[in-house]
Each structure stands twice: as structure tokens, then as C-alpha cells.
Write a structure and sequence with these properties.
Layout lengths: L1 E2 L5 H12 L3 H4 L10 H7 L2 E6 L2 E10 L4 E8 L8 H15 L4 E7 L3 H9 L3 E8 L2 E9 L6
Parallel strand pairs: 4-5
Antiparallel strand pairs: 1-2, 2-3, 3-4, 5-7, 6-7
């Protein structure tokens, strides 16, 4: 894992687009992380890159909030999905949240991304609510970071 720099923004955007493109037909539009300005995000928030042998495998975008650390984006390159890298990125996010003194970590996903909902539930995240997001539905999740969670 290494911290992203502004020079990494194009690679972050490309990996995110590749990872989320499978949802375009299901959602009827590009998911929000595909529309994000990663030059700005890298400048303003902690962004981490998971690399192996010089190849970008995954991206983790974190945003500090008053009561929790938000996982804004976790994306794994399509050819490396289903190999545990997403779980590794989420575990890293939880470690970052603990190190920053947070008692909770949170994230959200689209209700149509059912495989993500299943993964987050298996990893101990609990649904905290649903809200309209344009014509779609955002599902909010949180996880307590006490001893034994993670």
C-alpha cells in the first residue's frame, strides 16, 4: 500500500472506471465514483493504492468525518476481483480508522450493487438506512471498530 499522489489521478480514474463499468447497465448511468474528480480527491483526502510488481490492483479513498471515517471508494481492477484484494483494502481502511481514533467506520453503496451489500454484511458492516439518491437508492453501512471487530 502506498499513498496516492496527484500524478496517480489518471490511473485511479481508469481503475475505478474499469471496476464500476459492470454496473452501468444495471443502474442506467455511471456510478458516482466513475464521475469523481480524482485530482481534487487526491489533493483533499487520503487515497491509498494497492500495488504488486508495479501494477495497480486496487484503490481506497477515505474521507475524514467528525464521527467516523468514510470509505468513499474501494475499487479493485476487474482481473484481480474475487482474490481477496477488496477485503484487504477494507481491512486497511479499518486500521486507518482505528489509528485516527475513530470508533466507527462507514460506507455506502447503491442498492442495485447487491454483491457489495452481501460482502459488507459478511464483513460485519450493518445497514444503517436507505435514502433516495436521484432515481436510485443509497444503502448506508457502518461498523463499530471495538476490540474483535475487523
Amino acid at each position: 500500500m502506498r499513498r496516492a499522489t496527484p500524478a496517480d489521478a489518471p490511473a485511479i480514474a481508469a481503475l475505478t472506471a474499469a471496476a464500476y463499468s459492470k454496473y452501468i447497465v444495471r443502474m442506467g448511468r455511471e456510478p458516482q465514483p466513475m464521475r469523481t474528480d480524482y485530482v481534487r480527491v487526491v489533493a483533499e483526502h487520503p487515497v491509498w493504492l494497492l500495488e504488486a510488481a508495479g501494477e495497480l490492483l486496487g484503490v481506497l479513498v477515505l474521507m475524514h468525518e467528525p464521527d467516523a471515517l468514510l470509505i468513499y471508494n474501494v475499487a479493485v481492477s476487474p482481473q484481480y476481483q474475487r482474490h481477496g484484494y477488496g477485503r484487504q483494502l477494507l481491512a486497511y481502511a479499518e486500521a486507518q480508522a482505528r489509528a485516527a481514533g475513530y470508533a466507527h467506520i462507514r460506507l455506502y453503496t447503491n442498492a442495485l450493487m447487491t454483491e457489495n451489500i452481501a460482502l459488507y454484511t459478511r464483513l460485519g458492516y450493518h445497514e444503517t438506512g436507505r435514502e433516495a439518491f436521484g432515481e436510485l437508492t443509497r444503502v448506508n453501512f457502518a461498523k463499530a471498530l471495538g476490540p474483535g471487530n475487523g
